[in-house]
């Protein structure tokens, strides 16, 4: 079993409820158990700021799924929640976004999957929820989550509970 850290985000519809439902979908993945989930955070849009604010969270899974299979399962959950990927729109609005942030302490460089997530160490909207539930997790090449979170600006990010 491998500990995988997953970032969750949404900013369309009832984003908070979408993330609550997504936690349940993660818990139902085969060969996987949901070990921890963060509270939800309200986050200003990042990258493309001309869109609604996001709701972000993180989850820790224990999984026997290889990383590419876990990614495929996450993409299927996104599709079930109405995610439509448009390659022409980068950092756009989304019904649900699920990212493999960490997969144990592995470094993975595949065309469809990069672990650790290439921007994890720079993004407060991913680090704050992750630090809540996995502060000692190692971001290969960048140290522990608890150390990375103090190096980022958390402007406008606020916990909203549940």
Question: Can you put this structure into words, describing what you see?
Answer:
The chain is built from four helices and ten strands. With 162 residues, the protein is α+β, with helices and mostly antiparallel strands. The strands form three sheets. Strands 1, 2, 3, 4, 5 and 10 form a six-stranded antiparallel β-sheet that branches. Strands 6-7 form a two-stranded antiparallel sheet. A two-stranded antiparallel ribbon has the order 8-9. Strand 6 (108-110) and strand 7 form a beta hairpin. The longest helix has 14 residues, at 67-80. It is globular, with a radius of gyration of 14 Å.
What's this entry about, in short?
This protein has 162 residues and is α+β, with helices and mostly antiparallel strands. The protein is 26% helix and 31% strand.
Estimated structural class: alpha+beta
Number of strands: 10
Q: What percent of residues are in strands? A: 25-35%
Largest sheet: 6 strands, antiparallel
Helical content band = 25-40%
Average pLDDT, all residues: 91
The total count of helices amounts to 4
CA-to-CA gap between the ends? 27 Å
The helix/strand series, from N terminus to C terminus, equals: EHEEEHEEEHEEHE
How would you sum up the global shape? globular
Radius of gyration: 14 Å
Low-confidence stretches: none
